[in-house]
What does this fold into?
Amino acid sequence: MLEVIIIGSIKVIAVVSVLMGGCAYATYLERKLVAFMQHRIGPLYAGPWGLLQPIADSVKLMFKEDVVPDKVERVAFTLAPMLGFIPALLVFAVVPFSSNFTMFGYEIKGVISDLNIGVLFVFAIVSLGAYGLILAGWSSGSKYSLLGGIRGTAQMVSYELSYGLSIVGVIIIGSTLSMTELVEQQSSILDWYIWKQPLGFLLYITCAVAETNRCPFDMPEAEGELVAGYHTEYSSMRFATFFVSEYAYMIAVSAVATTLFFGGWQGPLLPPIVWFCIKVFAFMVLYIWLRATLPRFRYDQLMGFGWKVLFPLAIINTMATGFWVIWMDGIN
Amino acid sequence: MSFDTVIFIISALVAVFGATMMIVQRNPVASVLYLILSLVAQAVCYVQLSAVFMGAILIVVYAGAILVLFLFVIMLLNLRGTEELGESPNAVGRFTKYLVAILLTIELVFIVKTATIPAAVTGIMNEAVDEFGSVSQVAKLMFTDFLYVFELTGVLLLVAVVGAVVLAKTERNESHSLAQDEEGADLRESAGK
It folds into this structure.
């Protein structure tokens, strides 16, 4: 019993530390990559190639004055950044990051918790992510924040449906909800679910971008119209929490995409955990690439696209997969 | 006391605490937040009863979607706590309030004290397989024994959806707003406040 608790705690601490480091350096990656795509240099002065920039940023944010405007609803205003941040971390509880390995004589599983409803757990947690945004928008007592919060909530609730349905195809074919088993089914590159569920993957990645409020779906913080959207009134570490949770969400949905469609930690030669990191990194680059390439949607286009294009496609994909599985069963 | 019991006691206490605080609060947003807390604790209880699927669905549907919409509506109406809610108007109203509360409590205690679990239910509980409450078990029951009920619920939901669309459409035609869609109209409205 004690062993289980200690090993679990160590795993949790390790995953969270790596994730926090990953978030910090995701900002660096974003700034460098976007700079490269726009023929700029990007962060340069802090350390070699600007590598210490994330550390300088976080120190700066910590020492900034924590401004709390007069008209805010204090409790919700304080809770909102945390409520936004916690779900992003919780997703990693069920994402398998490695195969089982032995360390110091202990057989250790490559996942914090091997839930048999892992995929459902991810849905449940991601659906809680809207609260940080909506409470921040409401409690700030500012028009821009409120508009950002309303937009963000409507967007997240709308895209959540297609987000959930896009994975159903994989679940039907794999006939399991356990993330670990889904990874084990994709042992060779030909078994990756992206080949069996190409439409499902496209839907997933589109909805994931919308769920994380990233460009081209970053309506809640559209700076041209809403100053900074739902976190307009936030400063110092409260703002930093929102900022970090956005990146943590990006890494989380990338990790889930890797697990469901790209074989998770499976890969030749290199250790499993390295393969996992490479795949997640590739998704992060894709995210940033999208941001540097695409202009922002207009709000009504965004809602129309979600409900009239993505949602019907997701339903068609689910039904087609179901028919296909039954048909294949009939042949065998 | 086993680990499971400890978890059950904690989550049950949190669930009851959340539900109580939800009623007591004056601020509607705080009420919603306490309701979420209560729902999450209830989900933990479901998982303890090995009804894993129910627990997950409780979070996805209620905590994740319906309560978000509650908050959304509260935000749109811009309810900010105490000023909209007054005291009960008169002594009769106050008296009725307490009377009903006491009667309901007595009734509840009576029901809990005299309730017996029917034999059919205990039979099912004893036969419950290892996989009881898992996704595949729930799905099997839903698509075999309870197929008609399941389909009828689907029809009911469809009717609700059609009704919502009809209501939203009439409103738009009447107001002749320039809004492209309902969301746009909502946004304009709240921007005007």
